[in-house]
Amino acid sequence: MGRTSMTGDPISRVKCVVNGCEYWGNGDMCKASSIEIQTPKASNTEETDCATFAPKG
Q1: N or C: at which end does the chain have fewer Cβ atoms within 10 angstroms?
Q2: Which intervals hold domain DUF1540 (predicted)?
Q3: Half-sphere exposure of 25 (CA within 13 A, CB side)
């Protein structure tokens, strides 16, 4: 499992299209209890990373 736990209710304002993630839910919803985005000094989207991601399975 990843850095957080799975929840039954998706984070309503977070869209996730990575259906290979453990926390992905139908309708492109994130079902992680929380999310973590890195890196602190990012200045554009290419420099960010979803640290919450965990592969399904």
Answers
A1: C
A2: 14-53
A3: 14
